[in-house]
Amino acid sequence: MYYNFCHVLRLADYNGKTLKTISESESLRKGISRKVFSINDLPNGVYVVSILANSEKKSIHLIVKH
Fold first, then answer.
1. What is the pLDDT of residues 45-65, one digit of tens each?
2. Which of 31, 26, 35, 24 is nearest to 1 (CA)?
3. 2-34 in b/e burial notation, b at 16+ Cβ within 10 A?
4. pTM score, whole prediction
5. Biggest CA-to-CA distance, the chain
6. CB atoms within 10 A of CB 41
7. Do the Cβ atoms of 6 and 26 come closer than 8 Å?
8. CA separation, residue 15 to residues 5, 11, 26, 42, 52 (Å)
9. Residues β-bridged to residue 61
10. Which of left, alpha, beta for 45 (phi over 0: left; psi -120 to 50: alpha)?
């Protein structure tokens, strides 16, 4: 069963500038979902991955070190 909601998954630099919109308005399974994306084009640094679902926003830090 799919849980339909409008969501946005974004990758931003540490200053808040959006670098990539990874996903937008996609149906996800209820519970734990995975989204795979490439970081090969990102230089080493700290980034913020944010997901907006319904009216909730969650963010995590992503450390890239090649």
1. 999 999 887 778 899 999 999
2. 31
3. eeeeebbbbbbeeeeeeebebeeeeebeeeeee
4. 0.80
5. 38
6. 7
7. no
8. 28, 11, 26, 15, 18
9. 48
10. left
